[in-house]
């Protein structure tokens, strides 16, 4: 009981934190796929020329950061970075991070499985969220990813990771599908396949965003088709986050975030309070701190600020960027930003519980 109270008090502290405690960290730009819908494709193509932050540099950053709640270790393909467990160890040691999310294309089954097992054994006090991308079925998924056999590889990875549930309870297993032009007519079939054939805790769908590699992926998208998808998910995923901290509250925020994406697509107006810079930031593999995954604005490079995020977010560039955010001069359908905006905005709590009660 004492540990739970301590944890809840720590979470409350994040409401008043002056530092971002939700970090999306592209630990590498290296990738074994070349996806049509990738918004990080320029980083991926330039990966041989990019100087990744070293473990020593990441340690300096973690020491200076302060308390953290969530770290999303993304890429590129994060499991291609062999020191991934050591990166997690540094965040745990210096920031007390409680939730680590790792999105992956699931192509490197053996490497991924070995890495995940090491993480689960070594960090029993961290809740991991392992997410694998399935954008279509069979050859169509392979074509989107430009990797022959990609569908078979990712489904095999998911099946093997799901078997770890028999030994470990400190992780959730998700799939994510990107809603885009090429799969909008049969994404529902993809979700039904996952539901019937893969043992996952939940499915998620993200609306294509950013500077997609193939422009046509964003053409002729129909909002009503997206609405059909989110309605299906809402009916299926009550078990989402079932062993995740604050499960019911987060689930309600997720339901509400989906609705806001759809409303945003209709109105083209921001309908959520954005906490980018204040609560969450994006860190690229080379040390660049960005406002978010959508805006190109770079606030600075950690290497130029003694690896101290507090110095970066106090610059004139950061203050100007946040002023624009506050004035709703930008808009997006980025689900992570929307859900964070819901969770940390008390004015949304009634809507969260109303979303839960309707199900």
Task: Give a written overview of the molecule.
The protein has 359 residues and is an alpha/beta fold. It has a single domain (18-248, 276-321), classed as TIM Barrel (Alpha-Beta Barrel). The chain contains 14 helices and 9 strands. It has helices spanning 2-15, 41-45, 55-65, 84-95, 109-122, 139-145, 150-162, 187-197, 223-236, 247-267, 309-312, 316-326, 335-343, 349-357; strands at 22-26, 70-74, 99-104, 127-133, 171-179, 202-207, 280-283, 288-290, 298-301. A 9-stranded mixed β-sheet has the order 6-5-4-3-2-1-7-8-9, sandwiched between helices. Helix 9 (223-236) packs antiparallel against helix 10. The mean pLDDT is 91.
Give a nutshell description of this structure:
The protein has 359 residues and is an alpha/beta fold. 43% of the residues lie in helices and 14% in strands. It has helices at residues 2-15, 41-45, 55-65, 84-95, 109-122, 139-145, 150-162, 187-197, 223-236, 247-267, 309-312, 316-326, 335-343, 349-357, and strands at residues 22-26, 70-74, 99-104, 127-133, 171-179, 202-207, 280-283, 288-290, 298-301.
Topology:
Elements: H1 2-15, E1 22-26, H2 41-45, H3 55-65, E2 70-74, H4 84-95, E3 99-104, H5 109-122, E4 127-133, H6 139-145, H7 150-162, E5 171-179, H8 187-197, E6 202-207, H9 223-236, H10 247-267, E7 280-283, E8 288-290, E9 298-301, H11 309-312, H12 316-326, H13 335-343, H14 349-357
Parallel strand pairs: 1-2, 1-7, 2-3, 3-4, 4-5, 5-6
Antiparallel strand pairs: 7-8, 8-9
The CATH superfamily name is: Aldolase class I
Cα distance, first to last residue? 30 Å
Classify the secondary structure makeup into a structural class: alpha/beta
Query: In this structure, how is the largest beta sheet organized?
Result: 9 strands, mixed
The strands making up the biggest β-sheet line up spatially as 6-5-4-3-2-1-7-8-9
Coarse shape: globular
- The CATH topology corresponds to TIM Barrel
- Counted by DSSP, the helix tally is 14
Poorly predicted runs of 5 or more residues:
none
- SSE arrangement, N to C: HEHHEHEHEHHEHEHHEEEHHHH
């Amino acid at each position: 009981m004492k540990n739970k109270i301590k944890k809840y008090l720590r979470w409350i502290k994040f409401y008043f934190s002056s530092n971002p405690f939700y970090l999306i960290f592209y630990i590498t730009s290296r990738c074994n796929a070349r996806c049509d819908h990738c918004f990080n494709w320029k980083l991926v193509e330039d990966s041989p020329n990019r100087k990744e932050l070293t473990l020593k540099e990441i340690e300096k950053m973690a020491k200076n950061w302060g308390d953290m709640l969530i770290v999303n270790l993304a890429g590129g393909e994060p499991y291609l970075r062999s020191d991934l467990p050591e990166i997690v160890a540094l965040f745990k040691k210096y920031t007390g991070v409680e939730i680590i999310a790792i999105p992956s294309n699931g192509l490197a089954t053996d490497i991924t499985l070995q890495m995940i097992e090491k993480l689960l054994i070594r960090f029993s006090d961290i809740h991991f969220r392992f997410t694998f991308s399935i954008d279509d079925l069979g050859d169509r998924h392979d074509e989107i990813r430009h990797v022959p056999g990609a569908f078979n590889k990712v489904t095999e990875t998911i099946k093997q990771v799901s078997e770890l549930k028999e030994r470990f309870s400190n992780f959730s297993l998700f799939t994510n599908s990107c809603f885009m032009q090429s799969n909008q007519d049969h994404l529902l079939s993809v979700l039904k396949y996952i539901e019937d054939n893969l043992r996952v805790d939940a499915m998620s769908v993200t609306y294509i965003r950013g500077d997609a590699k193939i422009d046509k992926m964003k053409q002729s998208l129909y909002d009503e088709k997206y609405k059909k998808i989110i309605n299906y998910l809402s009916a299926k995923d009550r078990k989402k986050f079932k062993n995740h901290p604050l499960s019911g509250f987060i689930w309600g925020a997720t339901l509400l975030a989906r609705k806001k994406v759809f409303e945003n697509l209709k109105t083209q107006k921001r309908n959520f309070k954005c906490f980018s810079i204040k609560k969450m930031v994006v860190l690229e593999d080379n040390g660049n701190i960005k406002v978010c995954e959508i805006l190109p604005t770079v606030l600075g490079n950690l290497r130029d600020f003694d690896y101290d995020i507090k110095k970066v977010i106090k610059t004139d560039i950061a203050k100007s960027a946040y002023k624009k955010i506050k004035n709703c001069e930008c808009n997006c359908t980025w689900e992570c930003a929307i859900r964070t905006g819901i969770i940390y905005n008390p004015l949304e709590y009634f809507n969260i519980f109303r979303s839960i009660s309707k199900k």
